[in-house]
Amino acid sequence: MLNREMQDSGVEWIGRIPKGWDLRRMKYILSERKMKNDPIITQDILSLSVERGVFPYSEKTGGGNKAKEDLTAYKVALPDDIVINSMNILAGAVGLSKYKGAVSPVYYTLYDDSGQVDINYYYYLFQTESFQRSLLGLGNGIMMKESSTGKLNTIRMRIPMERLFAVRLPLPPKNIQTKIVNFIRPKVESVEKTIFETKQSIEELKIYKHSIITEAVTKGIEPKIEMKNSGIKWIEMIPNHWNVIRIKYVLKEKNEKSILGKEEPLSMSQKFGIIPSKDMDVIPNPPANYTGNRIVEVNDLVFNKLKAHLGVFDVSKYEGIVSPDYAVYQIKGDNNVEYLRFLFKTPLMIAEFIKNSSGVGAGLTRLYTSEFFNIKIPIPGISEQNNIVSYLNNKIVKINKLIKDKEEVIEELEKYKRSLIYEYVTGKKEV
Fold it and tell me: Terminus-to-terminus CA distance in the chain, angstroms?
């Protein structure tokens, strides 16, 4: 229970603060470091992510923007600078640098030059969801929609520095700032450690799931089965009674197009597969009309030809239309399309898609139907396909349930962490 008197801050997201705390605009608390980089200053590039904060670009994995070759286009960040991505601050893209390095020109680097601020206090403050939401409406070019989980999904936006500097922030005495930081830091680090370990266990479950799928669709699910050489280098041994055939013998391409564009628009995402466009959190660049889009029926296999190498394809559960840039395939003969979906999602098949795609680089390659159809695959009879699909569906439901439970734990821990930080940095709870 508070043993001190509180007062209204006059700022909605901050609420009540202890008497004796000041309230000032950010520009009177922190300074922007505007130092342009020079290779003499540093040749080390720093990156920023919501998950990791500030880290060396050399440790970056996956996609994203590539670093510029001209280091003079960058700004300088020094240890204990708060680094903010002006294009993604609403999603929590803020970090406290431990390094001297060059950062993107779209980043802001803030520091204390007065000696009256504990920079860690404001680093924690900027992580609160209440602060991030208070910035709504300050950006240029914002497109956003609140998802069913309550999170904000944003597309390319930028908050100008002058607007950010105008935001009012609490300013407790420096010794109180440090006291708050010292109190919440071990608690936050403990929660983040648990979150990290839970994420690691999720990744292990995903690896396990992929291994089960790969084993089932290339080796079968029957124990002690006699094997033979498939003649396919990337698979090697398969069950003796399985066949090896080209994809063109199990799928046919559909080229039916919408005349009026009145059918249900469908969209594809790596996370959700193919779903009605109206259910997407964000629809980038929707067409003016859907005339000429490809017709899709239930159980059609739909490929985003530009992203086949990322596994962006799915069996449709809906009737509708998709982009004319997509490929739509229908099963041929006595085969199970779900078996093919499982097979095509394996890393072995994705590697084949990459090998058979044409183009000039990442994001510009296409898996054309002729090359796709020419790929050889192992395939059992329909009865065994059905058994494998049933086996995998049963296994995957259980694994996905474990993953979902762990994701919910992470979500609760994130909420607790944000709430903990907010309660102390705004003085609702006393250290």
Answer: 11
The size of the chain, in residues, is 431
**105: which DSSP letter?**
T
- Band the pLDDT of 51: cuts 50, 70, 90: confident
Tens-place pLDDT, residues 107-151: 999 999 988 899 999 999 999 999 988 888 787 654 544 444 444
Contact of 170 with 9, CB cutoff 8 Å: yes
Query: What's the CATH number for 235-379?
Result: 3.90.220.20
Q: Where are the domains of the chain?
A: 6-172, 174-220+381-425, 235-379
- Matching residue, tokens 């403990």: 190
d(CA 411, CA 334) in angstroms, rounded, equals 44
For residue 187, the one-letter residue type is K
Q: Across residues 282-286, what is the average pLDDT?
A: 66
Q: Of all helices (H) and strands (E), which one includes residue 152?
A: strand 152-155
Fold identical between 6-172 and 235-379? yes
- Angstrom distance (rounded) from CA 216 to CA 9: 61
Fold of 174-220+381-425: Helix Hairpins (1.10.287)
Q: What are phi and psi for residue 163, nearest 5 degrees?
A: -75, -40
pTM: 0.81
For residues 304 and 286, give the distance between their C-alpha atoms in angstroms, rounded to a whole number.
Answer: 16
83, two tokens: 């680094």
